[in-house]
Structures are given as structure tokens and as C-alpha cells.
Amino acid sequence: MTTGGLSARSLLAIALLALATRGMFELQVRRDAGAVGTLAGHLLGDELAYDGMARAFADGSFHRERAFYQEPLYAFVLGLVYRVEPPPPAGDAGVRVDGVHLGVIVVQHLLGALACVLVATLGARAVSRRAGLIAGLLAALSGPLIFAESQLLKEGPALLLWLASLHVWLDVLEGGGRYEALAVPIEYGPTGRRSFYMDETGVIRGADHEGGAPKSDDPVVPGP
């Protein structure tokens, strides 16, 4: 994977900006004495489902008679975290705890900062360096992204994997599907004299290299 021409200094600046905005968000939310702070102190909606499934993974009681309506991988990874640092008792399952839950959120914010860097490099590779830089800065300051990372939800880590897969596809496309095939005589003379070369164009070239490797500029072998 390449950076699309963006310098290491630019990418570091994007990562630091992303971490700074995420840190300020968490501080403001956790210091809020009103409704925002109250809501932030509790797991809501799908967070409760992931939390419940992760608890079941952690204590070995996982058993379902119906399909889980969310992707189970995130809950499984969260369950591994719960095995290391147990969550609060089941009666307080809806309470967000600064220990285990904050640790997970911090990791998700770190992954979010990396996602911002991938956004920048993706834009630089696909469009231009300026476009990549702007895209990275916008991602670093994106409120929806920061909020998603602050929840016990899969969206933050999933975005990182999606961006990484796009980079892989770009690597494949930029490679152009190139290949080369070479053929040389097993024994020069008795089994043949010419060496042959073919690439993705399908054009076969050949010449006498005294048993050595062929070259891409050898004469084209005439068809039948």
C-alpha cells in the first residue's frame, strides 16, 4: 500500500488532529452534568445487545435458539476483552463503566485515527494529494465518525476494515494484472534452441539465447 504522495508529516498531522478531537469529545461528554452526560453513562440500543452477547461469550454461557440480529464478530472480540477485565454485574448491564468500557472506546478511537489516515491516502491515490489531504482532515473532524467510535458498536472498526480493503483493491488495479511466462530449452540443442517469452498481452516472443532466459523485446513468433 502506498501513501499516494502524501508525506509522513501530513499523515502524522491528520492522525494527531483526529486523536485531539476525539479526546476533547470524550472529556466534554463525560464532564457533562446534564442529559448528554446521563445518556453517555449508559449503554443504549444495539450497545446492550452487543454487551449481553459479549458477557455470554466471556462467561461461557453463550447459547441462542434464534439468530443474533447483529454481526457476532464484534461481540466475540468484546467478550475476549471481558474475559481479561470483567464487566459490571449483570444487574448493572446498562451502565457504562470507565474501566472496561472506556478501554474499548479508547482502542476504537485509535483505530478511528488510523482510519482517517487511510481516508487521506485513499483520496490521494484515487484523486490527488490535495483531495486526499482534505478528505483526511474532514474525517479527523467528522462528528458522526467520532460519535460512532464512542459507542460499543461495530461501525468504527468496520470502517477501518472497509478502507483497508479498498486499498487492497487499488493495489490490484494499479498492478494491472501483469504477469510474465518464460520457457527455455531443457537441454540446449537436443530439445530446442529458442527461448520464449509471453506477458498479459498474449503475444509470444522468441529468440535463440543459447539456453538463457528470453527478453521482452525478442521478435514476435509468427502465428500459424
Number of domains: 2
Low-confidence stretches: none
Contiguous helical run count: 8
Q: How much of the sequence is in beta strands?
A: 5-15%
Overall number of strands = 3
Q: Could you spell the SSE succession in H and E letters?
A: HHHHHHHHEEE
Described by the principal axes of the CA atoms, the overall outline is: elongated
Helix-and-strand structural type: mainly alpha
Distance between the termini: 43 Å
Q: What is the average per-residue confidence, as pLDDT, rounded to a whole number?
A: 84
Strand order of the main beta sheet, please? 1-2-3
> Major sheet, described briefly?
3 strands, antiparallel
CA gyration radius, whole angstroms:
27 Å
User: How much helicity do the residues have?
Assistant: 55-70%
Distinctive features:
224 residues, mainly alpha, 8 helices, elongated
Report on this structure.
The chain has eight helices and three strands, in the order ααααααααβββ. Strand 2 (194-199) and strand 3 form a beta hairpin. The mean pLDDT is 84. It has 224 residues and is mainly alpha-helical. It folds into two domains: 8-175, no CATH class; 178-224, no CATH class.
Please write out the topology.
Blueprint (H helix, E strand, L loop, with lengths): L7 H24 L3 H6 L5 H14 L12 H13 L15 H27 L2 H12 L2 H7 L5 H21 L4 E4 L10 E6 L4 E5 L16
Antiparallel strand pairs: 1-2, 2-3
Brief synopsis:
The protein has helices at residues 8-31, 35-40, 46-59, 72-84, 100-126, 129-140, 143-149, 155-175, and strands at 180-183, 194-199, 204-208.
